C-alpha cells in the first residue's frame, strides 16, 4: 500500500466526547491524549515519514475557560515529558518540531519541557513528528510575508520557493493527506494553508478519543486507492 509522505491530524471532538458522557471538558482532553499515544505508536510502526499533529490553536489557549486552559497545559507538559522518554525517538532519530506561538502564551514549566525535546532531537535525520501549538495558519503566513519584506526581496523576485523558505514549515514536505475527526468537515484557522494546496482531505464523524489505529488505516486505504491528478 503506497503511504503518504506527510499526513496532518486534526483531533477534533474531545469536549463533545466528554459531554456525551456527562463529564467535564478536561475528561475528554485526557482521553484525547491517550488516543494520540496510540496513533503515534501506529504511524511509527507502519513507517510514515512525516506526521503533523494540531495540538491547539492560539484561541484554544487564550480564549477558553481558564480552568480548561490550565488543564490543557498540564496535559501538554505530561505528554511531552512522556514523549521525550520514548525509546524510538532516539533509536530511529525522529526529529520533533513544535511550531506556533506557544513561546508567547505557554507557562515556563511547559515551555522548558518542549524546548528540551526540540533541542534533543534537533540533529535527528530520520522521520519528522511536528506539533502545532498555539498555531494559526494566518499567523504563519503573516510571519512569512514580514520575513520576505524584511529581507528586501523585490516583488518580482518572489517565487513559490521564496514563500516556502520563509514559512515555519520550511523543512516539511507538502501535505498529502489531512485527517479531521469529530464530524465537522470544515477548515480551521488557515491550517497550513500553503502546504495543503494539493492535499487529500478525510473527514470522519468519529470523535478523537475514539479514533483508533483501525480508523486511521481506513483513511490510509482510501488515500492509497484514490487517483491523484493534481489538476491535470
Write the layout of secondary structure elements.
Layout: E1 6-10, H1 14-20, H2 25-46, E2 50-54, H3 66-84, H4 87-91, E3 95-99, H5 102-105, H6 108-121, E4 128-132, H7 137-150, H8 160-165, E5 177-180, E6 200-203, H9 213-224
Parallel strand pairs: 1-2, 1-5, 2-4, 3-4, 5-6
Describe the structure.
The chain has a 6-stranded parallel beta sheet. The protein is built from 9 helices and 6 strands. The protein is globular. The protein is α/β, with parallel strands linked by helices and 232 residues long. The model has no long low-confidence stretch (mean pLDDT 93). It has a single domain, classed as Decaprenyl diphosphate synthase-like (Undecaprenyl pyrophosphate synthetase, 3-Layer(aba) Sandwich), CATH 3.40.1180.10. Helices cover 44% and strands 12% of the residues.
Major sheet characteristics: 6 strands, parallel
CATH topology: Undecaprenyl pyrophosphate synthetase
CATH superfamily: Decaprenyl diphosphate synthase-like
Determine the mean pLDDT. Answer: 93
- Give the % helix: 40-55%
Q: Could you write a compact summary of the structure shown?
A:
By secondary structure, this protein is an alpha/beta fold.
Amino acid at each position: 500500500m503506497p503511504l503518504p509522505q506527510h499526513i496532518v491530524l486534526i483531533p477534533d471532538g474531545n469536549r463533545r466526547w466528554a459531554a456525551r458522557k456527562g463529564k467535564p471538558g478536561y475528561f475528554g482532553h485526557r482521553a484525547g491524549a491517550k488516543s494520540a499515544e496510540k496513533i503515534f505508536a501506529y504511524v511509527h510502526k507502519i513507517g510514515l515519514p512525516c506526521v503533523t499533529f494540531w495540538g491547539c490553536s492560539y484561541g484554544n489557549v487564550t480564549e477558553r475557560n481558564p480552568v480548561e486552559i490550565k488543564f490543557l497545559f498540564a496535559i501538554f507538559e505530561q505528554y511531552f515529558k512522556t514523549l521525550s522518554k520514548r525509546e524510538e525517538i532516539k533509536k530511529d532519530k525522529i526529529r520533533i518540531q513544535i511550531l506556533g506561538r506557544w513561546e508567547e502564551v505557554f507557562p515556563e514549566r511547559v515551555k522548558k519541557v518542549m524546548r528540551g525535546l526540540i533541542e534533543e532531537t534537533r540533529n535527528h535525520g530520520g522521520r519528522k513528528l511536528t506539533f502545532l501549538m498555539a498555531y494559526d495558519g494566518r499567523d504563519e503566513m503573516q510571519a512569512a510575508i514580514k520575513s520576505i519584506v524584511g529581507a528586501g526581496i523585490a516583488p518580482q523576485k518572489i517565487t513559490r520557493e521564496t514563500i516556502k523558505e520563509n514559512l515555519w514549515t520550511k523543512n516539511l514536505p507538502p501535505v498529502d493527506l489531512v485527517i479531521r475527526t469529530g464530524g465537522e468537515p470544515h477548515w480551521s484557522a488557515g491550517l497550513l494553508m500553503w502546504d495543503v494546496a494539493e492535499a487529500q482531505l478525510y473527514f470522519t464523524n468519529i470523535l478523537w478519543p475514539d479514533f483508533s489505529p483501525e480508523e486511521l488505516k481506513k483513511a490510509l486505504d482510501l488515500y492509497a486507492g484514490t487517483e491523484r491528478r493534481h489538476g491535470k
